[in-house]
């Protein structure tokens, strides 16, 4: 099983239209490898969270957010 990683902004300027976690962080990207996630997480305020470490409500919110983008614009 792949261990997915979320790259998050821990102090976002805005959360409007973003996938916002319960702690106020905003998910910026999702990666299958820690090295890819770490490559963009070198900036101050940017962190990495394992998907499995998200709370149940945060995982659900993130899946719903992704589902919006996986639907076609038919």
Report on this model:
- The chain is an alpha+beta fold and 74 residues long.
- It has two helices and three strands, in the order E-E-H-E-H.
- The protein has helices at 34-40, 56-70, and strands spanning 5-9, 26-31, 46-50.
- A three-stranded antiparallel sheet has the order 2-1-3, covered by helices on one side.
Task: Please summarize what this structure is.
By secondary structure, the protein is an alpha+beta fold. The chain has 2 helices and 3 strands; from the N terminus they run ββαβα.
Would you spell out the secondary-structure blueprint of this structure?
Blueprint: E1 5-9, E2 26-31, H1 34-40, E3 46-50, H2 56-70
Antiparallel strand pairs: 1-2, 1-3
Distance between the termini: 32 Å
Rg, alpha carbons:
12 Å
Model regions low in confidence, pLDDT < 50 over at least 5 residues: none
Report the sheet with the most strands, covering strand number, pairing sense and barrel closure.
3 strands, antiparallel
Sheet with most strands: strand arrangement: 2-1-3
Q: Give the quaternary arrangement of the chains.
A: single chain
Can you write the helix and strand succession as a string? EEHEH
Number of strands: 3
Structural class: alpha+beta
Helical content, roughly? 25-40%
Total helices: the number is: 2
Shape: globular
What fraction of residues sit in β-strands?
A: 15-25%
